[in-house]
Amino acid sequence: MNGFLFINKPQNIPSFDIIRILKQILGRQFKIGFSGTLDPIAEGLIIIGIGKATKLLDYFHLLPKSYIATAKLGFISNTYDSQGEITKVNDISISLQQLQKVFENFKGEQLQIPPKFSAKKINGKRAYKLARDGENFNIPPQKIYIYSLRLLDYLYPEFKFEITVSSGTYIRSIVDDIGKRLTTGAIMTSLVRNRIGNFSIDQAVDLYEIKSKVFLKNYLKSIDSIISSFIPELKIDNEFRLENGLPLKLEHIENKNDIEGDGIYYILKKNGKNRILAIVKAKKNDYNSLVFEYKRIISYDYF
Fold first, then answer.
1. Distance separating alpha carbons of residues 58 and 296, to the nearest angstrom
2. In 3-state terms, the chain is what percent helix, strand and coil (to 5)?
3. Mean pLDDT of successive 10-residue segments in the chain (303 residues)?
4. Tell me, what CATH number does 185's domain have?
């Protein structure tokens, strides 16, 4: 069994528990992983890889993520959300115009410091474990990108917004930063991931609806259909090179004009059923010509 499963994660369950639940259904011999951790407070779309699909989960990190979040002004929390130790800051009432003005500053590329209560690894240990143990440590800022940020509703002290961001962005950190700029403090009270790239929560199945292996297979999406929906195809003149580990050069590409600089591409195996033979990365070399790195060659049987 190989493929992707779109799960609607319920609130108050860790992402890693989804793997445990699925292994109870499928059997511990199955390799299962996921792309993009969701905090326990969060719910919504999470993409699960089963079997050889787990090798391809990293490619979903290329895709932007969309969320709908609610937050509350006037408070701070050590976890930046309502599940941590909450401290009241003040009762300063913020106008709609003030909130909208702050929102305008949270767009584009910026540096973000992830929460200490997060799954980030610090010297091989999860940050949240270090924080729970009371250890003093710092997490270096990371570059993120906010594609869009839209206020949906506001009635002091609560506001609701929709946001689309690059992978690795912590929405509760954004909420905390909004509170700091307003000098009122702010904590996230709920979070729903409704989209990963072009994949929607409407395509997901509720976790607790999966009762059996047979039921799960009905919702499993093939590797080919998912990967080909967001990674472009390269067409090569001969599959022999890839199947035998020989170099792939620009002269071997039939659709050279479709290559737009550096990027990730898939190559289909056309002998028999159309199946993805390889994922390759095109890179410019010192001579300003394209060379190709094999990310991995995959071979699998349909379940």
1. 12
2. 25, 35, 35
3. 92 91 88 91 95 89 95 96 95 95 92 88 87 88 95 97 95 96 96 96 91 83 90 82 73 79 77 71 64 55 35
4. 3.30.2350.10
**In this structure, which amino acid lies at residue 91?**
D
b/e code 14-53 from CB counts within 10 Å (16+ = b)? ebeebeeebeeebeeebbbebbbebbebbbbbbbbbbbbb
- Answer yes or no: is 234 within a domain: no
- Examine the domain organization and report whether 167 and 90 are in the same domain: yes
* Token pair of 110 as six digits: 């910026």
**Cα(191)–Cα(67) distance, integer angstroms:** 7
Instruction: Give the C-alpha separation, 12 to 191, whole Å.
Output: 11
Residue 176 token pair: 């905390």
**Domain range for 276:** 240-297
Residues whose CB is less than 8 angstroms from the CB of residue 154 and which lie 6 or more positions away in sequence, other chains included? 96, 99, 160
- Is 259 inside a domain boundary? yes
Spot the catalytic one: 17, 39, 224, 301.
39
Asked whether the CA dihedral 198, 259, 4, 301 is positive or negative, the reply is: positive
Amino acid at 124: G
Instruction: List the one residue out of 208, 207, 200, 197 whose CA is nearest residue 230.
Output: 197
Pairing of strands 186-196, 42-50: parallel
Q: Give residue 303's pLDDT.
A: 29
Q: How far is CA 230 from the centre of its chain?
A: 14
**39 labelled catalytic:** yes
* Residue 279 bridge partners (DSSP): 266, 296
Tell me which DSSP letter residue 221 carries: B
CA dist., res. 134 & res. 131, Å (int): 5
CB 38 within 8 A of CB 193: yes
**Amino acid code (one letter) for 15:** S
